[in-house]
Write a structure and sequence with these properties.
The complex is a heterodimer. Chain A is an alpha+beta fold. In chain A, about 35% of the residues lie in helices and about 20% in strands. Chain A is built from nine helices and 13 strands. In chain A, strands 1, 3, 4, 5, 7, 8, 9, 10, 11, 12 and 13 form an eleven-stranded antiparallel beta sheet that branches. In chain A, strand 11 and strand 12 form a beta hairpin. In chain A, helix 1 runs antiparallel to helix 7. By secondary structure, chain B is of the alpha+beta class. Chain B has three domains: about 70 residues, no CATH class; about 120 residues, Bacterial toxin RNase RnlA/LsoA, N repeated domain (Double Stranded RNA Binding Domain, 2-Layer Sandwich), CATH 3.30.160.690; about 100 residues, Ubiquitin-like (UB roll) (Roll), CATH 3.10.20.720. Chain B contains twelve helices and ten strands. In chain B, the strands form two sheets. In chain B, strands 2-3-4-5-1-6 form a six-stranded antiparallel beta sheet, with helices on both faces. In chain B, strands 8-7-9-10 form a four-stranded mixed beta sheet, with no helix packed on it. Classes of the chains: A alpha+beta, B alpha+beta. At the A-B interface, strand 10, helix 8 and helix 9 of A face strand 7, strand 8 and helix 10 of B. Chain A: Belongs to the CENP-L/IML3 family. Chain A: Keywords: Centromere, Chromosome, Nucleus. Chain A: It is found in: Chromosome, Centromere; Nucleus. Chain A: One of its GO terms (cellular component) is inner kinetochore.
């Protein structure tokens, strides 16, 4: 890897510039940090699949030095303009893990949209309360997002969007997006080899919108492709990764604090601890911990967290490592152990 | 009777749990015994409140009388509000005789001259507590009865407990009026806040059992030890350490029940220190953090941390000092000292 390299390496997989050293782009600072953050978030969201399944990453775990970038970067680096990843932003995403889909085909997305639309209409007629007191015309769109995937072997992400138009409003009035869900795959080479024919691997499902629509869409996918959905919990280990990764992103002066929330439920009286660090100070600490630009390794995350824990222990003599990390929050995004990620900007 | 008064009475009654309504109305005393007997207290609250309003109409109840019902409700359920503690200071040492009439007159006078439109109610309780309810208006608008401030003043002490309404702009005026009326010179806000009014009183009046250093070991039989299993196959490892932790924990927290607080907040402006071998951050500026602890019963929760193995025993004095220092909001800076481990909180 070339030191002080060209601002945007064109190689597949891209490079994460976690530190802020060196001149990087000529673009306006505001645009730069938005772009970086979009990358960081897209990368993060896609990494969950991998991280959640405990798949190895990090130099310490022996990934080939040819592609030391970790966690996996989406191909979004190459051709994602902010427009196409805009749907990710300023939203809260609930995470599910999905078993492989049987006989799913990218060629039939339009048909799927049609069938799902009919399914939703039927559910409404059956009287399932979709939205109380509101008569809505629901339109379904299913599209492929070829630029959101971990590696070439992965399936392209699939986006399902529900929009509505009130029947009272004129025909060509704008439709309002009421629900989004997207399936994606980030396993890279490992999983694709083992997947039997006829199965499509899209193990991560992210949802934004009302629970009633989530269950309808989920039921349809379950019936149609014989798959099953399960809420994905985010472990403290992964939350720490998120915290470290997002802390390293450059943010402006008015950024909110980096906050870690711990819970100690099994006491006679439960206790919650919120530990918020000034974003500049948190980033300064992370920048000294993260030694190799373009990589994050497990040891660095451990050191970062240990530093924060020991600073806390110095004051309060409480071992935060014995408590449960339930939420991490930075200016860019926040993640909760119940499998909820909020993209903040 | 004004319909705004009727509506206010209706809403106040609705706040009260159904089983308590009769008792509170009796305490209120605005409705006669015969009138109260006409109300069916078993019906739904909406109907009860309408009956009450009807009877108040007959008695031509005014807003000031209606406000008394609100005080009674808040006196029984103070924990629905957040209370802040203020301490007044006087320069002279003489304990002046407290004249309640004079206090009320001066207090009302100060507020009315500034705002013209205020509803002020006083109610005295047994423990020398004076409850004051203030509904705030302006020279041009009527008082907002739905966002009153409450003040609890124990006249024999310099302490005032204030549950400010959302209208924080009236706080300086309120403080002024208190100082003037009670013949003090100054008032300052203590960094102590909680929902539990009684716990705040326990803390500032030192009514909780305080921790103290024992210079003799307490015999273990004194303690109410839970009967251990008679099964000899179960042995407790680290028994000595466990007992040391229990003992030290009780020393720093005291034996009695802890005052009930819901949160503590620490603004840390201390230096970040690490093992030099780790080669991490070594800045000359403070590592700025904000730490918030919250729990339904914070002090009991903190007390249970060391025995649960999550904290060292003794736990940090930053936490155990909360009742003695009578504060739960702290700003911690590095002490400029040989021993940078110690902290000072201004």
């Amino acid at each position: 890897m070339a030191a002080g390299a060209a601002p945007r390496p064109a190689r597949r997989g891209g490079r994460r510039e976690g530190g802020s050293n060196g001149p990087r782009r000529e673009a306006a600072p505001g645009l730069v940090s938005v772009m970086e953050s979009v990358e960081a978030v897209a990368r993060t969201l896609l990494s969950f699949g991998r991280l959640s399944r405990g798949l190895p990453f990090g130099r310490a775990h022996g990934l080939s030095s040819r592609d030391p970038l970790l966690p996996l970067a989406p191909r979004s680096q190459e051709n994602a303009d902010p427009q196409r990843t805009a749907f990710l932003l300023r939203k809260q995403w609930t995470l599910y893990s999905v078993t492989p889909l049987y006989r799913f085909s990218n060629a039939h997305l339009r048909d799927y949209a049609r069938l799902l639309s009919a399914f939703i209409a039927a559910e409404k007629q059956k009287g399932l309360a979709v939205e109380v007191g509101v008569e809505l015309d629901i339109k379904v769109a299913v599209s492929s997002l070829p630029y959101l995937k971990g590696s070439d072997q992965d399936q392209a992400a699939i986006l399902v969007q529900l929009s509505s138009r009130s029947p009272a409003s004129p025909k060509n009035s704008e439709e309002k997006l009421i629900w989004s869900g997207w399936f994606c795959c980030v396993s890279g080479d490992n999983l694709s080899k083992n997947v039997p024919e006829d199965f499509t691997c899209l193990p991560l499902f992210l949802v934004n919108g009302a629970e009633c629509y989530t269950s309808i869409v989920g039921s349809w996918f379950q019936k149609t492709f014989d798959c099953s959905f399960r809420r994905l919990a985010i472990s403290p280990l992964i939350l720490s990764w998120m915290a470290a990764m997002w802390t390293g992103c450059k943010v402006d002066k008015t950024a909110s604090a980096m906050e870690l929330v711990f819970s100690v439920p099994c006491l006679p009286q439960p206790l919650d601890i919120s530990y918020a660090i000034h974003p500049e100070d948190a980033k300064a600490l992370w920048d000294t911990v993260q030694k190799t630009p373009g990589e994050i390794i497990q040891e660095e995350v451990d050191v970062f967290m240990d530093c924060l824990y020991s600073h806390f222990h110095r004051h309060f003599r409480i071992h935060l490592s014995a408590t449960k990390l339930v939420k991490v929050s930075t200016a860019i995004a926040s993640a909760h152990c119940d499998g909820i990620i909020k993209v903040r900007f | 009777m004004d319909e705004t008064v009727a509506e206010y009475i209706r809403r106040t009654v609705l706040k009260i749990p159904r089983d308590e309504i009769k008792t509170m109305l009796e305490k209120w005393g605005l409705l006669s015994e015969t009138q109260l007997q006409t109300i069916n207290f078993r019906q739904i609250k909406e109907s009860i409140s309408q009956d009450v309003v009807q009877l108040c109409e007959e008695n031509s109840v005014d807003i000031k009388q209606a406000a008394v019902l609100d005080i009674i409700y808040n006196h029984v359920y103070p924990n629905k509000r957040v209370w802040c503690v203020y301490q007044m200071k006087k320069t002279g040492e003489e304990a002046e005789f407290f004249d309640l009439t004079d206090f009320k007159k001066k207090f009302k006078g100060r507020l009315r001259s500034a705002l013209k439109n205020v509803t002020i109610n006083f109610r005295e309780y047994e423990d020398n507590a004076i409850w004051i309810r203030i509904a705030w208006g302006t020279p041009y608008t009527k008082p907002n009865q739905y966002k009153p401030s409450y003040v609890v003043y124990h006249s024999q002490t310099p302490y005032v407990f204030i549950s400010a309404s959302v209208l924080k702009s009236n706080l300086p005026l309120l403080c002024q009026a208190l100082v003037l009326a009670s013949n003090y010179h100054d008032i300052r806000e203590m960094e102590l806040r909680s929902h539990s009014l009684n716990s705040l009183k326990d803390i500032v009046f030192k009514r909780y059992s305080q921790n103290f250093q024992t210079h003799y070991p307490r015999p273990l039989q004194e303690r109410n030890v839970a009967p251990k299993s008679a099964d000899l196959r179960i042995i407790q490892e680290n028994r000595n350490e466990k007992e040391r932790i229990e003992r030290v924990n009780r020393e720093v927290f005291g034996d009695g029940p802890q005052p009930k607080l819901e949160f503590a907040q620490y603004k840390l402006e201390t230096m970040f220190k690490s093992d030099p071998q780790m080669d991490v951050l070594d800045k000359k500026e403070p590592f700025r953090c904000l730490v918030k602890f919250s729990s339904p019963h914070l002090l009991e929760s903190l007390k249970s941390l060391a025995p649960a193995g999550m904290a060292d025993a003794p736990i940090s004095p930053l936490l155990t000092c909360i009742p003695q220092k009578a504060r739960n909001y702290f700003k911690i800076r590095e002490k400029k000292h040989f021993f940078p481990e110690s902290f000072v909180s201004p």
